[in-house]
Amino acid sequence: MSGKNLFNKIWDLHKVATLPTGQEQLFIGLHLIHEVTSPQAFAMIKEKALPVRYPSRTFATVDHIIPTADQTRPLSDPQAEKMLAELERNTKENGITFFGTETGSQGIVHIIGPEQGLTQPGMTIACGDSHTSTHGAFGTIALGIGTSQVRDILATQTLAINRPKVRRITISGNRDRGVYAKDIILKIISILGVKGGIGYAYEYAGDAIEALSMEERMTLCNMSIEGGARVGYVNPDATTFDYLKGRPFVPAGDTFDRAVEFWRSIASDADASFDDTVKIDINGMAPMVTWGINPGQAIEVTERIPDPAAAAPEEREVAQRALDHMGFSAGDTIAGKKIDVAFLGSCTNGRLSDLREAAAIVKGNKIAPHVQALVVPGSQKVKVAAEAEGLDQVFRDAGFSWRLAGCSMCLAMNPDKLKGRQLCASSSNRNFIGRQGSPGGRTLLMSPAMVAAAAVAGEVIDVRKYIV
Questions:
Q1: Rounded (10°) CA dihedral 254, 259, 264, 267
Q2: CA atoms of 319 and 357, how far apart (whole Å)
Q3: Which DSSP category does 18 fall into?
Q4: Neighbouring-strand partners of residue 400
Q5: Is residue 468 predicted with pLDDT exceeding 90?
């Protein structure tokens, strides 16, 4: 009899019941909320006179709507101020910990969860945000949910859900210089497609994955949802435990040692079975860039934009629509495309290591005169740490705008938006039409280092030309 994979171990530990619908009721160990998907959920349980079942298992922050240039209260946008005030009121009334802007711990929800040590191996985690899969980097089942499910968890601490299948994706090979976790996940999605993961949880494995830092693993798992997967995770190991030790919500001393024993035990067994397996070799891979309107439309920076006629029949229409929107032609090189905006930040790539990688490229350089560039740390703690290293000055000297923590231009539910037909080199996670605030705006997804290189060159360029 074969062993069990991490996903099914955790699922079985948290399963409460099989429901009449055929779905399974799952206990949620950690619930993260923010200002966008929680107000209606709180209103719904209040209408039914239901309390928050386990307020100590829910933690809140503000990230999507918070301005990154000026956070003076009341916020300049009345709707944003209303949403923030509503979150403050709901968390206070229900005894929920809120990492507000005055705490020094505010930030993007998927950055502060790991930062605080709230995210730990073996957990079930849910948040009303699609990129909750980020937390799978620690060996968790981390689920993005909708507002009605936020309501259900507030009221019951459980979630009704169908159990997905599990696909193991083994990544082998050595990364070339200038190739990062963002490149690996873009390569995976370009191969398997944006719908390839539907019905699956992805387990990332292999030597190339084990070599990633925790922050790189978070980037990898963050974009699992962009490949259609419900969940993406990495098995916990010494890298995981070293990252967690000493963080505010992580147990200490003997209790930490016992926790590590459990964390090791929930990793996939050596003989674990999977519903599907995929192997990808990244030897010789160049940095990746998207050329279209979904994250699967990505190529290596050394490649040419593909011809829609060569795509699978079901993908030809969206490929042509992508070329029409972007103003590109089949056969164009992606390198050399002139950019207008460079954005560094997001829950995908707004961590300290991301800022270090970008700063190393821009140090001693200036951004191109026609480029608007901004750096948005993913949390207040990331901002403080970056400033302690002098990274903020490196960016300022190069011509970047150094901002306060928030989601910023990733989804533009705040003042940071593209204008007209601007083309943006972005370290974020989605390049959908209108995603960055302008219906005509165009987004090229790439690693932070590639964004930095594009800002300096004024066009898409292979970052390896800047790496000695």
A1: 180
A2: 32
A3: E
A4: none
A5: no
Q: For residues 91 and 106, is the Cβ–Cβ distance under 8 A?
A: no
Structure letter (DSSP) for residue 107: B
Q: Cα(427)–Cα(351) distance, rounded to whole angstroms?
A: 11
Which CA distances in Å does 85 have to 27, 39, 157? 29, 10, 24
**What are the backbone angles phi and psi of residue 458, rounded to the nearest 5°?**
80, 5
Phi, psi at residue 176, to the nearest 5°? Answer: -75, 160
Is residue 463 scored above 70 in pLDDT?
Answer: yes
Q: What is the pLDDT of residues 238-268, one digit of tens each?
A: 999 999 999 999 999 999 999 999 999 999 9
Q: Tokens for 453? A: 């290189």
d(CA 409, CA 346): 8
Report the topology of domain 291-465.
Aconitase; domain 3 (3.30.499)
Could you tell me if residue 341 is left (phi over 0), alpha (psi between -120 and 50 degrees) or otherwise beta?
beta
Strand pairing report for 97-99 and 341-344:
unpaired
Tokens of 426: 């972005």
**Largest Cα–Cα distance in the chain?**
64
Residue 229's identity, in one-letter code, is A
Sequence-ordered alpha helix ranges (H) in 140-236: 147-156, 181-192, 207-210, 214-222
The structure tokens listed for 28 are 């949620």
Residue 147's nearest CA partner among 129, 131, 163 is 129
Residue 450 carries which side chain, given as an amino acid letter? M
Name 168's bridge partners: 203, 277
Closest CA to 439 of 416, 414, 420: 420
CA distance 145 to 148: 8
How far apart CA 437 and CA 434 sit, in angstroms, is 5
And the tokens for 31?
Answer: 């619930």
1-286: in CATH 3.20.20.190: no
**Nearest alpha-carbon partner for 278 in 195, 197, 176:** 197
The three-class DSSP label of residue 370 is coil
**Residue spans per domain, the chain:** 1-286, 291-465
Which H/E stretch holds residue 204?
strand 200-205
Helical (H) or strand (E) element with 126: strand 124-127
Which residue type is seen at 48? K
- pLDDT of res. 1: 61
Q: What is the three-class DSSP state of 431?
A: coil
pLDDT tens figures, 55-73: 999 999 999 999 999 999 9
Kindly tell me the number of DSSP H helices and DSSP E strands found in the chain.
Answer: 16, 19
